Amino acid sequence: MSAQLFSDSQILIAGVDEVGRGCLFGPVVAAAVVFEKAAISQLPEIGVKDSKQLSAKRREILATEIKNRAISYYISYASAREIDRLNILNASLLAMQRSVTKLSVTPELCLVDGNKKIPNITIPQETIIGGDRTSPIIAAASILAKVWRDKLIIRLATKYPHYDLENNKGYGTKKHRLALQEYAPCFHHRHSFKLK
User: Fold this and answer.
1) Given this model, what pLDDT does residue 190 score?
2) Family assignment (predicted)?
3) For 136, how many CA atoms within 13 A lie in the half-sphere containing its CB?
4) For the chain, which domains are there?
5) pTM exceeds 0.85 for this model
6) Using an 8 Å Cβ cutoff, are 151 and 62 in contact?
7) What CA–CA distance (Å, rounded) separates 144 from 189?
8) Is residue 17 marked as binding?
């Protein structure tokens, strides 16, 4: 692929990121979002940055804005069972692969958070360590994935009230770990993780 193509402002670029790698509960969720290269610079102007630096309310507002502006996006996941079977890194890459392959358009380049390329896709990829902090399009993907995952965990919290999921979103807080000792893990816990 020529350098000319990558300098073209109209080429389609996908940002890809995942959330929930460090959780004890629930899936790892990945989002892929596609913009024309020229439009990526508009993302910081509307407030897009690393999802961890934004309030839940701000993330929800931005997620809607990103979806409205994006040429395509897709959110996918790998389940707790897949994480246990594959390990968290491979499950994260699987979730990313699912998101990219389900896009309604084929981007010319994927910008991927981290240092591992997504396996089994033929689209050119560039990995960026800390990409959710430095690349607006990866940050946009991180917002979509975070909002989707948080909503899922809040829904599951009503079914599994013991674990304080509404507050911890599946991360291993003290309250969550104490509940695991008292009630044992449920189906959605990652049994390959150190749960106690």
Assistant:
1) 97
2) Belongs to the RNase HII family.
3) 17
4) 3-151 (3.30.420.10)
5) yes
6) no
7) 23
8) yes
